[in-house]
Specification:
single chain, alpha/beta, five-stranded mixed barrel, 8 helices, binds hypoxanthine
Length: about 270
């Protein structure tokens, strides 16, 4: 199915960009700033899973940011919706087949580290997969990558350094941290957050890690950015999806500036 999807997309956009960005909750506005846009609804791509959560869009947008061509995946599907791990990484695999070399993943996350604040952008340095599954479970497709891919440098050092420099020059307050991937959809309990802190996590979220694993399997270089939408359970009063969406939207402008600037510098 990923090959049929890749064939359809390369028919529609013959010269596919080398950079793709997955935009999470409320961050899809970046797509509107692209020039010479081609928009392809996920529903028109064979096999592509279509998101059902409010606030998550469902289309691919290819266009130019400055002089850089880029493919945006606006909206993703999550394990907690009942999608299989393979469906969750479908889009990333298709990007890999189309020749994408650099994948930027964005998401909304709860802050476990007390120095983080809602609205802050945090670059991921590593992750802890607590989702109880892995998109590489099942027979390995050797044409995509190895059975046992290395994860010791899942988040590309050079891209991370470029992200740091970009944030510094923009005067943006950006953190760095380890992302704990939870299955969801319930938010964590305060006890779970204490556990996550004890094992070295700085952020909790419900996405991204399957995509990182599938991308690394295929040898794509990865940069991942969490927008802190809330302090994790036990560090603030209550958590709500509305709050996550609102804070995500408020900091979308900053993330957009960052992405524009980062895209102008990154070499692929
Ligand atoms: N926990 C898990 N996922 C999240 C959170 C959180 O606190 N906020 C946004 N996504």
């Amino acid at each position: 199915m990923i090959r049929a999807a890749a064939a359809e997309l390369s028919r529609r956009v013959p010269d596919w960009p080398k950079i793709a960005i997955v935009l999470g909750s409320a961050q899809a506005s970046f797509a509107e700033s692209l020039e010479d846009r081609v928009t392809i609804p996920y529903a028109e791509i064979p096999g592509w899973p279509v998101p059902r959560v409010a606030g998550h869009a469902g289309e691919l947008v290819v266009g130019r940011s400055g002089s850089r061509r880029v493919a945006l995946l606006c909206g993703r599907v999550h394990l907690y919706e009942g999608w299989t791990p393979q469906q969750v990484v479908f889009g990333v695999r298709v990007m890999g087949l189309l020749g994408v070399k650099v994948l930027i993943l964005t998401n909304a996350a709860g802050a476990i580290r007390e120095t983080f604040r809602p609205g802050m952008q945090v670059f991921l340095t590593d992750h802890i997969n607590l989702q109880g599954t892995n998109p590489l479970c099942g027979p390995n497709d050797d044409s995509l990558g190895p059975r046992f891919p290395d994860m010791s440098e899942a988040y590309d050092r050079a891209l991370l350094e470029l992200a740091r420099q970009t944030a510094r020059e923009l005067g943006m307050e950006a953190g760095e941290g380890v992302y704990a991937a939870m299955l969801g959809p319930s938010f964590e309990t305060p006890a779970e957050i204490r556990f996550l802190r004890a094992i070295g996590a700085d952020l909790a979220g419900m996405s991204t890690v399957p995509e990182v694993i599938a991308a690394r399997h295929m040898g794509l270089r990865v940069l991942a950015i969490s927008t802190v939408t809330n302090m994790a359970a036990g560090l603030q009063q209550r958590l709500s999806h509305e709050e996550v969406l609102e804070t995500g939207k408020a900091s979308a402008a900053e993330l957009r500036r960052f992405l524009e600037s980062f895209l102008a510098r990154v070499e692929v």
